[in-house]
Amino acid sequence: MNKIILMGRLTKDPETRYTQTNNTLVASFTLAVNRRFARQGEERQADFIPVVAWSKTGEFCSKYFKKGQQVGVVGRLQTRNWEDENKVKHYITEVVAEEAYFADSKRDGADAAGFENTFGADVAANSDFSVTSDDDLPF
Questions:
Q1: Cβ–Cβ contacts within 10 Å for residue 10, how many?
Q2: Tens of pLDDT along 65-98?
Q3: For the domain 4-109, what is the CATH superfamily, name and number?
């Protein structure tokens, strides 16, 4: 099984591009994920993890994610390599996001955007209804 669950802060706004072959949207960003423990007398360390999100999840990330926001990502780990024009081989390990969520505390005045904040891209992108307050939720 290959499943990654991360929560961290965006180091900068997501970068968006489209593939050359079939014009599919790809959003790329880096999450700063704090390590669980810190050595006594030292600051807590963070790992900087590259994330890519494709299609609708990528569209959601590029539209709503901003530098400094705390977000959650569920996906899979992927490694790949390529050779550049100078024949130098490059290797990368990244998370391919399958789900993306806001993880900051909810802001006042939530409406349908608040629904997206609570439930993430997967539900928000596929919903045919809107929620005007938490009282409208069935749970």
A1: 19
A2: 999 999 999 999 999 999 999 999 999 999 999 9
A3: Nucleic acid-binding proteins (2.40.50.140)
